Amino acid sequence: MEYIGEIAALAAASCWVITALVLASAGRHVGATIVNAIRIWIAIAILLLLVKLNSDTFWPEVSSSSLYALALSGLVGLAIGDQFLYRALIDAGPRLSTLTISITPALTAILAMLVLGEMLDATDVLGMILTIIGIGIAVAPTQDNNIQKKYPHLARGIFFAFLGAMGQALGLVLAKIGMQGTDPITNTIHFTEVSPLAATYIRMCFGGIGATLMLVIYLVFRTKNEKKIKMQLNKTLILIFIGAIFGPVLGVWLGLISVKNINAGVAATLMGISPILIIPFAKIFEKEAITKNGIIGALLSTIGVAILFLS
Q1: 11-25, 65-79, 112-126, 172-186 — which is least confidently predicted?
Q2: Closest among 2, 83, 6, 50 to 265, alpha carbons compared
Q3: Distance between CA atoms of 103 and 107, rounded to whole angstroms?
C-alpha cells in the first residue's frame, strides 16, 4: 500500500493526542508512576489477545538479537521515557510537554543516521524543518501570560519532557533494529524480520517489567504527602483504559508500522505533529487559549507534512 508508513505515522499522532489528554487527567488523581504501570499492563493484556488471534501463540518466535533490541527498546522507550513524559504532562501540561518532545524527530534522525545508516535527502530535511518549526511556533508560550494556564513545577516538567524525548528517540531506533533483524553489535542484517504487532507486544512486555519495578520503588519511597492520593477510582481506571488503547496499543503499533516502512526520522516527524492536533482539545479540556501563533504553526506544519508525503 502506497504511503502506508506516512498514514500510519499520522494515525499514531492522532492516537497520542487522545492518550496525552486522558492520561494527564488520570495522572493528577493517582500519579504518573501508577498510571504508567497500569496502562502498560492493560495494553499487554489486549496485545496478548491480538497476538494469539493472529498467530495462535502466546509468544512470537524471534531471534535472540531481535529480542534483545526490542526488550531494550521497551525498557528505554516505554518504561523510562514514557514515565518522564507522563510526569511532564502533570507538571508542565500537554502544550509545553509536547513542545519539548518536538525535538524527538531530530534526535531520532541523528540516531538513525549513526546506528542504521539512514540518510535524509534535501526534501526530507526541508519537510522535517518546516514541521518542527511549525510545532514550536504553535505551542510556544506567548507574551500574554494571562491566556496561558499555570502549571506547578514548570521547569521540572520541561526537563522531564526532554528526557522523555530522548527515551522515545532511542526506543524507536532500537525497535527498528529489532524488527528488521539487525545484529546490534555488527549492524548486519541476517535474522528474520519481526512484524510490528509482535514487536509492539514484546516491547510492551519488557516495558511493563520496567514500569512495575519503578512502581514498586515509588510505593516504597514516596513521601507522606504523596500517600494522600485523590482516588476517584472508577473515573481514573476508565481514563487509563482509554489511554492504554490509544497509546501503547494503537499508537505504538501504528508507530512501528511507520518506522518499519519509512525512514525513522521522517516517521518520528510525522508522529510529532501531535502538538498541532492537540491544540483545539487543549482549549476544550485544559482551558488553554488558541493563539495566532498556533494557527501559523499549524499551517507551517501542514506544509512540512505535505512535503514529506511528496518526497
Answers
A1: 172-186
A2: 6
A3: 6
